[in-house]
Amino acid sequence: MQRIVVLNPKGGSGKTTIAINLASHFAMRGERPTLMDYDPQGSAAHWVKKRQQSQPPIHLISAFERDARTTRSFQLRIPDTAGRVVVDTPAAIDAHDMPELTRSADKILVPVLPSDIDIHACSRCVQNLLLVAKVRREDDRLGIIANRVRRNTLIYQSLTRFLGTLGIPIVATLRDSQNYVRGAELGLGLAEMKPYQVSEDIAQWQPLLEWLELPSRRSAAAGAGAAVSTVRSA
């Protein structure tokens, strides 16, 4: 089971849009994804509730809610059948909360918009992930998404120059498209919309989806360690 965390303390960076479209993609592949919504706004949960019974299932965990009748661990439990877990994190998350959210993540996605304010916020976010959450660049589990981009603009050029200084892969460059707005309104992801309407957007997601399929070096090392342990115990 792969756990994907979408994180950026800056509000409006497109975390929920990324999270719901990932969940939709995995659902269409029959992987029965779980979508965990930690954002108090509950936008991802609202999107899931719009979906029809005829659509591929997405298991929702409204992690932002607290239920005094159950334990927290029971509330956050993930079904055994889940092939992927997508975590939509809240805005304004404190740096000291990042280790808990990212510790078990196989992949961490940081969407960033092409604006001076967002570039500055992304810089702080990456710094906290590296220094506070102890996410290592060499583990290949941290990726940047340039979101709502309009190419051939000065601010886009500034964004690409900035991202090039981070030493972290840009795993997708997504355009500013009304298809995302339409999908959010209808409880759909790009993968569930008519191909001729979303072909350009789907093409922009391919590098991200391919990167997600690559095992992180930390996961590979953990797997190798488990194998060695099994051999020794035998």
Characterize the structure shown.
With 234 residues, this protein is an alpha/beta fold. The protein has one domain: P-loop containing nucleotide triphosphate hydrolases (Rossmann fold, 3-Layer(aba) Sandwich), CATH 3.40.50.300. Helix content is 44%, strand content 16%. It has a 7-stranded parallel beta sheet with strand order 3-2-4-1-5-6-7, sandwiched between helices. Helix 1 packs parallel to helix 2.
Compact summary:
The chain is α/β, with parallel strands linked by helices and 234 residues long. The protein has nine helices and seven strands, in the order E-H-E-H-E-H-E-H-E-H-E-H-E-H-H-H. It has a single domain (2-233), classed as P-loop containing nucleotide triphosphate hydrolases (Rossmann fold, 3-Layer(aba) Sandwich), CATH 3.40.50.300.
Q: Main attributes?
A:
globular; 7-stranded parallel sheet; alpha/beta; 16% strand; disordered C terminus; single chain; 234 residues; 9 helices; Rossmann fold
CATH H level: which superfamily?
P-loop containing nucleotide triphosphate hydrolases
Helix content: 40-55%
Apparent shape: globular
CATH architecture: 3-Layer(aba) Sandwich
Mean pLDDT: 91
Structural class: alpha/beta
Could you name the CATH class?
Answer: Alpha Beta
Q: What is the number of helices?
A: 9
Report strand order across the widest sheet: 3-2-4-1-5-6-7
Runs in which pLDDT lies below 50 for 5 or more consecutive residues are: 226-234
Distance between the termini: 26 Å
Query: Would you list the SSEs in sequence order as H and E?
Result: EHEHEHEHEHEHEHHH
How many DSSP-defined strands? 7
According to CATH, what is the topology?
Rossmann fold
For the record, the count of structural domains works out to 1
> Roughly what fraction of the amino acids lie in strands?
15-25%
